[in-house]
Amino acid sequence: MRFLFVMDPAHSMLPDKDTSFAFMEAAKERGHQCYHCLPAQVGLRGKHVTTVSAHVEVQRMAPAVKLGVYEEHPAADFDAIFIRKDPPFDAAYLALTQVLDLAEAETFVLNHPRALRDANEKLLALHYLDFMPETIVTSQPSDVFTFVDRVGEAVMKPLDGAGGSGVVRLSKGDKNVRALTDLLTGEGKRLAMVQRFEPAIKEGDKRVLLLDGELLGVIRRVPQEEDFRANIHVGGRVEATDLTPREKELVQAIGPSLRERGLWFVGLDLIAEKLIEINVTSPTGIQELARLTASRPAHKVIEFVERQAKRRGDRGQDA
Ligand SMILES: Nc1ncnc2c1ncn2[C@@H]1O[C@H](COP(=O)(O)OP(=O)(O)O)[C@@H](O)[C@H]1O
Ligand SMILES: [Mg+2]
Question: Using CB atoms within 10 A as the burial measure, which of 61, 83, 196, 234 is most buried?
Answer without folding.
Answer: 83
